[in-house]
Write a structure and sequence with these properties.
Shape: globular
CATH topology: Nuclear Transport Factor 2, Chain: A
CATH class: Alpha Beta
CATH architecture: Roll
Distance between the termini: 44 Å
Order of helices and strands: HHEHEEEEH
Strand order of the largest sheet: 1-5-4-3-2
Structural class: alpha+beta
Number of helices: 4
Radius of gyration: 15 Å
Length: about 130
């Protein structure tokens, strides 16, 4: 296991999310990166595709702070256990969302990402109710 601060995932969450730096996405993600577990629109890929999610999320949530609790790194794979703290823009409610992100690194950038965050809990925290289809 590497030092937490030296991992790509730590830098990703710190630069992109905690510093709210959209330009860091281009620096840390390949243009053809594939990702799952987040909604970006059909067929969106790479840094430009991820920016769609980033812009949407930062429009809906302010004061975003993502704490990286642990990172495991081996060869070209990293996995981080994180907690998202933010404020829902519309309701003003504070949210706390735990999750895990796993990436494959290529040439020092994110080439693939798998995200698993408790978005059901997020919906409940901001007062959304699930109803049968």
């Amino acid at each position: 296991m590497r030092d937490l601060n030296s991992t790509l995932l730590y830098n990703w969450f710190e630069e992109v999310w905690n510093r709210n730096d959209e330009n860091a996405i281009d620096k840390l993600m390949t243009e053809d990166a594939a990702f799952s577990g987040i909604e970006t629109g059909e067929g969106a890929k790479g840094a430009s595709g991820f920016k769609l999610f980033f812009r949407d999320f930062t429009k809906q949530f302010h004061d975003i702070n993502i704490v990286v609790e642990q990172v495991v790194s081996e060869n070209d794979m990293e996995s981080a256990r994180t907690v998202i703290y933010a404020t829902h823009a519309e309701s003003g409610k504070s949210i706390v969302v735990p999750g895990i992100c796993m990436i494959r690194v290529s040439n020092g950038k994110i080439a693939e990402a798998w995200n698993n965050y408790d978005f059901l809990s997020l919906s409940q925290q901001i007062g959304q109710k699930l109803v049968p289809a």
